[in-house]
Every structure is written in structure tokens, then in C-alpha cells.
Amino acid sequence: MSDRYCVFGNPVGHSKSPLIHAAFAAQCGQDLSYEALLAPLDGFAASVRAFVAADGRGANVTVPFKEEAFHLADRLTVRAELAAAVNTLRFDGAGILGDNTDGAGLLRDLSVNLAYSLAGKRVLLLGAGGAARGVIAPLLDHRPGLLVIANRNVARAQDLAQRFTTLAGGLVPRACGYPELAGQSFDLVINATSASLAGALPPLPVAAGFFAPASLAYDMMYGQGDTPFLALARKQGAARLADGLGMLVEQAAEAFHFWRGVRPDSAPVIAALRATSGPGRDG
Questions:
Q1: CA–CA gap between residue 10 and residue 27 (Å, rounded)
Q2: What string of pLDDT tens digits covers the 283 residues of the chain?
Q3: Is the CB of residue 89 less than 8 Å from the CB of residue 96?
Q4: Which of 35, 217, 239, 257 is deepest in the core (most CB within 10 A)?
Q5: What is the 3-state secondary structure (H, E, C) of the chain?
Q6: Which residues are annotated as catalytic?
Q7: How many Cα neighbours within 13 Å face the side chain of 161?
Q8: Closest to 193 in 3D by CA, of 219, 214, 168
Q9: Spatial contact of 243 and 223, defined as CB atoms under 8 Å apart
Q10: Half-sphere exposure of 272 toward its Cβ, with a 13 Å CA cutoff?
Q11: β-strand 88-92 against 56-61: which pairing, if any?
Q12: d(CA 78, CA 156)
């Protein structure tokens, strides 16, 4: 029988993860099955345990369960512990091991697929949920000149900035609400909120110069055409736009390696999905 894997989410019907992992398995000659499973909002832990009892070997976790998965895991990788959020679970004789591959996926998409260097850049991260938590440490590792975390709930942003201050190597992440962004300018703006899933925008006080010359606007949501955030960035003069499809595939490749010990080639999978992808965000 094939080894069983899945992605848990709510909603989860839009997920491209089954297609991605089927492509990776075929490419790497791995015998496995992968499915999307809808977990009740109040029943994530029970859903995971039922999957483990049915001989599940591992799972991805998408919104809104990444922080709950962190508390469910018996053991954590270093990057999951830093993020306090988990998007990948591995089940073995020692229990549940939690990992976070979001940051590795984002940074590989930025540095390899988009050939974008973070060194010295002014970076704005929108949101303070599970998606944002997983990418802060890798962003800091690439030595930006500035990292600002903005969120509707300023206290959540402040908690994140404080959590990662000791990792910054001299760079102290800043935290603020959206109104405090007025008059600032950024080289890279990353939308890690769920606003695009609802066809909405974070309440950015955008004016001329918010997106600096040669800036990159990056939305973790993926799909055909511009998201509301990317449409705004285009209108406001961002030089480059990118959605989260590359990040989705790259974090999946990292998870696949975490489970199977082999690393698939992400480029052909990104190319195939780019031609057919509908809107969403998962992984």
C-alpha cells in the first residue's frame, strides 16, 4: 500500500498540494498518495489523530491551523520552534514532529526563481498570523536593511518583533499598525494576510513613493491575474509583481524532502501549475 500523506485546512478544496505532491512522487519514483482533507474548525487535532490511526505518514497544514499544529506536535524542528507555527507534520514511532517550510519556500522563490537579493533592502511584511511567523527568521538571515511587521492588531505585530529581535544580529524588527506606514518607502512588500482570499486589501496608507523604485510586491496568494494587493502595487508603481505560486511549490518541495529524504525539481512543477492555476493559498 502507498504511504499516505495529506493537507489539512478549512477551506481546503482549492488546494494545489495534491497535484504538486503527485508530480513530485512521479518525478522522484516515490510510492505515495496525497489528499486534501477538510478539518472542522473545532476538530483539527481529532482529524490529525484519525489520519495517524489510519496509517498516515505525514501532513501539510494550511489556514487556519498552523498555530494549532504547533501546539499539537510532540517535537519541533528549530525553525518551527522559532516561528511558533507549523505547516508540516511527520508521524513516526516517536509521535508527531512539526516543521515549518514556509520560510524556506519563500526565500527560495525570491532568491532563485525571482533572482531577488534581500541584502540591505527595506522590507515590509503585512500580517502577523501563521503565514508571517514562518518567514521572519529566514528573511532576517538574508540581512535586509530594515524589516517592518505591520498588522491590524498592533500587539500581535509587536509580539512577533520581540520574538525575533534576538535573531536579528543587530537588525531589530519594527512593528506597527497600518496607519503608521504613511510616508514610508519599501523595496519589498510581502502580503502575508488572508485579505486576498476574500478579494480585499489590507488598509495600506499608500501614496506616491510607498513602493520604491525597483521594488517588488509579493502576495502569498496565488492565482490567475493580479490579486487586489498586486493590482494596487501595479497602480502605485511597483517595478515587479509576484504571487505565491512559487512559494507554494518550493515549500512543498521542502516538505517532500522532510518526509522522503529526496528533493524534487520544483521548476517544471511551477511551470505546469502556472498555466492552470486558480486562486488560493495553501501549504
A1: 29
A2: 799 999 999 999 888 999 999 999 999 999 999 999 999 999 999 999 999 999 999 999 998 999 999 999 999 999 999 899 999 999 998 999 999 999 999 999 999 999 999 999 999 999 998 889 999 999 999 999 999 999 999 999 999 999 888 665 668 899 999 999 999 999 999 999 988 877 889 999 988 889 999 999 999 998 767 899 999 999 999 999 999 999 999 999 999 999 999 999 999 999 999 888 655 555 4
A3: yes
A4: 217
A5: CCEEEEEEECCCCCCCHHHHHHHHHHHHCCCEEEEEEECCCCCHHHHHHHHHHCCEEEEEECCCCHHHHHHHCCEECHHHHHHCCCCEEEEECCEEEEECCHHHHHHHHHHHHCCCCCCCCEEEEECCCHHHHHHHHHHHHCCCCEEEEECCCHHHHHHHHHHHHCCCCCCCCEEECHHHHCCCCEEEEEECCCHHHHCCCCCCCCCCCCEEEEEEEEECCECCCCCHHHHHHHHCCCCEEECCHHHHHHHHHHHHHHHHCCCCCCHHHHHHHHCCCCCECCC
A6: 66
A7: 22
A8: 219
A9: yes
A10: 13
A11: antiparallel
A12: 22
CA 69 to chain centre: 15
User: Are 125 and 139 in contact, with CB atoms under 8 Å apart?
Assistant: yes
What is the CB neighbour count within 10 angstroms for residue 31?
8
pLDDT tens, position by position, 196-229: 877 889 999 988 889 999 999 999 998 767 899 9
**Residue in this structure with the C-alpha cell 495529506, named with its chain if needed:** 6
Residue 207 corresponds to which amino acid? A
